[in-house]
Specification:
The protein contains ten helices and 13 strands. By secondary structure, it is α/β, with parallel strands linked by helices.
């Protein structure tokens, strides 16, 4: 057990949110009990995750996607009221870290996605250098984009949308978890043969065909399942807390 303030301090020291220009607040988003004993980690602070944390008798939730984002109207109605009501009624702390959780070089979403896929980052690219550029840890190439897509599908358990040249060897691989479509042009400029992220929008298919760089979308949720439990497990072990990862499946 530790004080909530110590838990927050440990997270901030690890993830360094002050380094990032983000889309919402990082850190403690909803205040619950002053002492932390059991942490539930998950991808998104959905009602299903909050209900699962209550059932698990957790006093703290740690997520990548919190409740508050730039551009919201600020009204506590509908789904927002329902989620907040559950957190407040059960006195549960909600901690959320967005870009800092993507970026951590060991426990972050991009590092952990690379680990799942057997990729090693050699450099970084894109806005705030969130994108990773590297190759397979074993130094081998993928003989075709279809081989890489099949490899991703086996590792993540999700089908992969593939766009671009279907007949090229893949050696230099760029990746950025979640909805990182806007990083594709930077990946092309960085010299990638292929770019892996969670989502694809209409323009990226054309860029892939015209620029000769393969684009692979493996699911926003599927690409971001790994950072939150890695961070939470590390901090929980450091502070002597119980930790449980609860994966609320999402087809997106």
């Amino acid at each position: 057990m530790c004080e909530r303030a110590e838990f927050l301090r440990t997270l901030d020291d690890l993830l360094q949110p002050e380094r990032f220009k983000d889309y919402g607040p990082n850190g403690l988003q909803v205040e619950g009990r002053a002492q932390v004993a059991k942490v539930v980690s998950g991808v998104t602070a959905s009602r299903a995750l909050i209900e699962a944390a209550i059932a698990a008798r957790a006093d703290t939730i740690f997520v990548h996607h919190g409740l508050f984002w730039r551009g919201q109207d600020g009204c506590v109605t509908g789904w927002m009221k329902q989620r907040l009501a559950l957190l407040l009624a059960h006195d549960i702390n909600l901690f959320a870290y967005h870009l800092p959780l993507d970026a951590h070089p060991t426990f972050g979403n991009n590092a952990q996605l690379g680990l799942q896929l057997g990729l090693v980052a050699q450099s970084y690219f894109g806005e705030q250098e969130l994108g990773c550029l590297g190759q397979r840890a074993d130094g081998r190439s993928f003989e075709s984009p279809q081989d890489l897509a099949a490899h991703i599908q086996r590792a993540l358990g999700r089908s992969v949308a593939l766009a671009g040249d279907q007949n090229k060897t893949i050696r230099k691989i760029a990746w950025c978890s979640g909805g990182a479509q806007s990083y594709f042009e930077a990946a092309i400029a960085a010299g990638a043969d292929a770019f892996i992220t969670g989502e694809i929008s209409e323009p990226q298919a054309h860029y892939a065909r015209e620029c000769g760089v393969v684009y692979l979308a493996c699911g926003h949720h599927a690409s971001e399942r790994y950072g939150a439990p890695a961070v939470a497990a590390h901090v929980a072990a450091q502070l002597g807390l119980a930790h449980e990862f609860i994966d609320i499946d999402n087809p997106a």
